[in-house]
Write a structure and sequence with these properties.
It is a single chain. By secondary structure, the chain is mostly helical. It folds into two domains: 51 residues, no CATH class; 79 residues, no CATH class. Helices cover 50% and strands 4% of the residues. It is built from eight helices and two strands. It has a two-stranded parallel sheet with strand order 1-2. This is SIR2-like domain-containing protein.
């Protein structure tokens, strides 16, 4: 059943405007993608879930995730900040075999170990596109691929975008910015 009403009209106008703009500018869009994409397609955890999973990997007998949630009033940034030191200490002790050896280098910040645990878990749970069972979701991914964006910018730790946009080169950090950030215009 086709959509009708003001929202359907709005969507048609925006789609037409986007097509006209892309044709006039003769370029492809740059996509800014957040964690909502991964949450939609494979129920990736939110920050609380990601932090809790990272903490579960630490077998040092310390407090559970709920302890940190309680003392920080459930503020994910404060929880993550509290976990950095604990995970860093564990990584340099009992957890040393859980990380690549090159992370034990002064060029890395102590938060590298919690980031590694979160990223490693997300990589493990990120499905192959062909393994998605929902036909509608696979069709949506096909439409995303068809956009053929100039670039995709994200803060996501998972590799789902690399699976959608096969052949794109991931650039981590601010290496993508090749101009003086102090200039304007």
């Amino acid at each position: 059943m086709p959509e009708t009403g003001a929202f359907a009209d709005y969507k048609k106008r925006i789609a037409l405007l986007m097509k006209e703009t892309l044709a006039a500018k003769e370029c492809q869009p740059i996509l800014f993608v957040g964690a909502g994409l991964s949450r939609r397609y494979f129920q990736a955890p939110d920050w609380h879930g990601a932090l809790a999973t990272a903490l579960k990997a630490v077998d040092d007998g310390g407090p559970d995730y709920e302890y940190y949630a309680q003392i920080s009033k459930n503020d994910a940034v404060k929880i993550g900040t509290s976990l950095i030191e604990r995970i860093h200490a564990w990584a340099w002790g009992k957890g040393k075999k859980s990380f690549p050896q090159d992370l034990y280098n002064e060029k890395f910040s102590p938060d590298i170990f919690i980031k590694h645990l979160i990223s490693d878990n997300l990589i493990k749970i990120t499905p192959k596109i062909s393994k998605l069972t929902d036909k509608k979701l696979r069709e949506e991914i096909g439409l995303l691929r068809d956009i053929r964006p100039h670039a995709v910018i994200t803060t996501n730790f998972d590799t789902f975008l690399e699976k959608i946009y096969d052949g794109y080169e991931p650039i981590i950090g601010q290496k993508v910015i090749k101009y003086n950030m102090n200039s304007f215009g």
